[in-house]
Amino acid sequence: MNSTQALLELHDLDQLLELARDPECRTRLGRLGFTFTGIPVLERERTKLVAAVDQRWVTTYERSLARYGRGINVVRERVCQGCFVTLPTSANPPVGESGIHLCESCGRLLYWR
Amino acid sequence: MAITDVPAVSSLPLDLVELRHKRRESALTQLVAAAEAAGIVRDGDVLLASLLRAQRIGSTAVGRGLAVPHARSFAVNRPAMLLGRSARGVDWGAEDGVPVQIVALVLSPAATPVGMHAGRVAGALHELRLQRTRQRLLDVDAAGAVALLRGGGA
Question: How far is A17 from chain B (nearest CA, A)?
């Protein structure tokens, strides 16, 4: 697993944990037969995923998660979908395996599709 | 009640997959591959990892032969629901021990609010809660199954 994939999986895991910790969703889905007993297992899994991510992104990811509720956002048509500011023309999709970029306007991590 | 009465689910594109496998992981892999082929999913590996992790938080098999795996993921391009069916059943680790014959995979893009995603999952479950609906889904052909869930009858 490369660092970008680990970061995307970390994001999805945090989305899942958000749902599992949300009292309203827990109650609603719990009534329908879902169980949420494995949160501690996923928290351990999260620690492993964080270790697999390039450390230079981890601090920014955690900061974005705490501040905005999501660690990464996407870029669409050169626009950051977090703050909706158009990226400068000097910002280009990263070459190679990493599709991760930093929004200079809001400081979010961006996944360049 | 027809699925059109549940707006969160009725507006979703719907596809039907005949499940060939008996293991949960293999069935999920097949559903993700079908979603990727339909252009719903960008990165199948990331989505599959998310779906398998979601099984660890608690089984998504809700009993009586029904499972509703779901994901809110970066790998998903647009909201969609994929329906998988297996006449012989998939071993999904349900609490009641009944093999799963109907799988409704609910997918939402990462930007979907958590409450909206939970609503889609609940809507899918609500629509498939009746035994006679599930049985009809197993009995009719693919087009009929989709029509049945769209409220047009089989």
Answer: 9
What is the residue type of B53?
R
Largest CA distance in chain A: 51
Q: Report the distance separating Cα A79 and Cα A41, nearest Å.
A: 36
Instruction: Give the pLDDT of chain B (154 residues) as one tens digit per residue.
Output: 344 434 444 455 567 788 888 899 999 999 999 999 888 898 899 999 999 988 888 888 888 889 999 999 988 988 988 889 888 889 988 888 889 999 999 999 988 899 999 999 998 888 888 888 888 888 877 666 666 666 544 4
Beta pairing class for B14-18 and B80-90 = parallel
Rounded to an integer, what distance in angstroms lies between the CA atom of residue B137 and that of residue B132? 9
Name the residue ranges covered by the structural domains of chain A.
Answer: 3-112
Q: Classify domain A3-112 at the CATH topology level.
A: Helix Hairpins (1.10.287)
- pLDDT computed for residue A92 by the predictor: 74
Most confident of A54-58, A70-74, B68-72: B68-72
Report the alpha-carbon distance of residue A30 to residue A41 in Å, rounded. 19
What distance in Å separates residue A24's CA from the closest CA in chain B? 8
- Interface size between A and B, measured as CB pairs under 8 A: 92
What ipTM describes this predicted complex? 0.82
- Mutate which: B43, B46, B98, B112, vs A, most A CBs within 10 A: B46
Contacts with A18 from chain B: Cβ below 8 Å: 114
Any A CB within 8 A of B58 CB? yes
Domain boundaries defined on chain B:
3-149
Residues of A engaging B, defined by a Cβ cutoff of 8 Å: 5, 8-9, 11-13, 15-16, 18-20, 22, 24-25, 28-29, 32-39, 41-42, 45, 70, 72, 74, 81, 111, 113
Domain B3-149 has what CATH class? Answer: alpha beta
Mutate which: A8, A41, A47, A74, vs B, most B CBs within 10 A: A8
d(CA B35, CA A22): 28
